[in-house]
Design goal:
- This protein is an alpha/beta fold and 323 residues long.
- It has two domains: 56-88, no CATH class; 90-322, 2-enoyl-CoA Hydratase, Chain A, domain 1 (Alpha-Beta Complex), CATH 3.90.226.10.
- 41% of the residues lie in helices and 15% in strands.
- The protein is built from eleven helices and nine strands.
- It has helices spanning 19-31, 37-55, 73-78, 93-100, 127-138, 172-188, 206-225, 240-243, 266-273, 284-289, 302-322; strands at residues 61-63, 70-72, 106-109, 144-151, 154-161, 192-198, 230-238, 252-255, 295-296.
- The protein has a seven-stranded mixed sheet with strand order 3-4-5-6-7-8-9, sandwiched between helices. It has a two-stranded antiparallel ribbon with strand order 1-2.
- A hairpin with a 2-residue loop joins strand 4 and strand 5.
- Helix 6 runs parallel beside helix 7 (206-225).
- The radius of gyration is 31 Å and the shape is globular.
- The chain starts with 18 loop residues before the first helix and ends with a helix.
Length: 323
């Protein structure tokens, strides 16, 4: 038999799609040791366990900032976010509205829109990025939120400053929100109640943020010109330009227990005057003792106190107008 007559071996069939991957995977599988029975069960277990795990909130237990005690979230909610030690935790606007208005019934009022970044400010990251992150975290457009409802049967506009939104800082949007709330109170002929919580003016807006102090003060004068009550509840913390303006101009000044109320921090004051400050300095109870705050009222008692004062002031206004 000649070489020409020798039968040729059959040509290999071209590999189909994915053939190389299958071959490589088989080689790798042969190279590594076989998985144990627990590993083979793991995918099925993960499917069963994962949904239940995802339903459990990460914040089911919270720590008391004062004592370090671990607290069950539903118990805190039932106690209006006041810990067993008496510490008044910070609230969101929705939480404030829920416990301030009768049965939590209220109507949100939208604040006017403003330009987000008037100065094109940038520090470690652009100012619009900070606003975007704050909005995503809080669900609010800015630091001021307002609503209309009844407090112990009396109509009122309630304005809440949200410390969770960039430290409740005062900028153009917050200033416009305050003015809108005051004018809404004039329009509806009812009092304005403001819950303050702020670290001061918003540095990303420079002098524009400082101008809101004067603008808010002028808005309060519109209320006073109509004889409408302006009530302030100082919550933790109320500091900086907010303290230097509308936070201290209420007809009645309430405060929550333990709230920090100051223009600047105690450490700065101590470094400036080189003296040790008294115990409890700049706290609500200390300021009540000095006559800066009219009354320190626990959170659960605030709606009754606000309703009583609103009733007295509005009834007095009606008698004066009728005379």
């Amino acid at each position: 038999m000649t070489a020409r007559d020798t039968p040729k071996p059959p040509e290999p069939t071209p590999p189909g799609p994915g053939a190389e991957a299958t071959s490589g995977s088989a080689d790798k599988a042969a190279a590594r040791p076989k998985a144990g029975w627990l590993a083979r069960l793991r995918p099925g277990l993960k499917k069963r366990v994962a949904p239940r795990t995802q339903e459990t909130p990460d914040t089911l237990w919270l720590k008391d900032p004062e004592t370090g005690e671990m607290l069950y979230r539903p118990d805190l909610e039932a106690a209006l976010w006041v810990t067993p030690s008496g510490h008044h935790m910070r609230l969101s606007p929705d939480q404030r509205f829920a416990f301030t208005f009768d049965e939590g019934v209220h109507t949100r009022i939208q604040a006017p829109s403003t330009r987000d970044d008037p100065l094109g400010f940038r520090d470690q990251k652009p100012y619009p990025d900070r606003l975007k992150a704050a909005r995503a975290a809080t669900g609010e457009v800015d630091a001021m939120s307002m609503a209309y409802g009844r407090i112990k049967g009396r109509p009122a506009i309630v304005l809440v400053q949200n410390f969770g939104f960039l430290g409740g800082s005062l900028g153009q949007a917050a200033g416009e929100g305050f003015i809108a709330a005051a004018r809404e109170a004039v329009k509806r002929d009812c009092p304005l109640v403001v819950f303050t919580a702020s670290g001061g003016a918003r540095m990303q807006e420079g002098a524009l943020s400082l101008m809101q102090m004067a603008r808010a003060t002028l808005a309060i004068q519109e209320l006073k010109a109509k004889g409408l009550p302006y009530l302030v509840v100082l919550t933790d913390p109320t500091t900086g330009g907010v303290t230097a303006s509308y936070a201290m101009l209420g007809d009645v000044q309430f405060a929550e227990p333990g709230a920090l109320i100051a223009f600047t921090g105690p450490r700065v004051i101590e470094q400036t005057i080189r003296e040790t400050l008294p115990a409890g300095f700049q706290r609500a109870e200390y300021l009540e003792d000095k006559g800066v705050v009219d009354q320190v009222i626990p959170r659960a008692a605030l709606p009754d106190a606000l309703g009583t004062v609103i009733g007295i002031l509005m009834d007095g206004r009606a008698r004066i107008r009728a005379a």
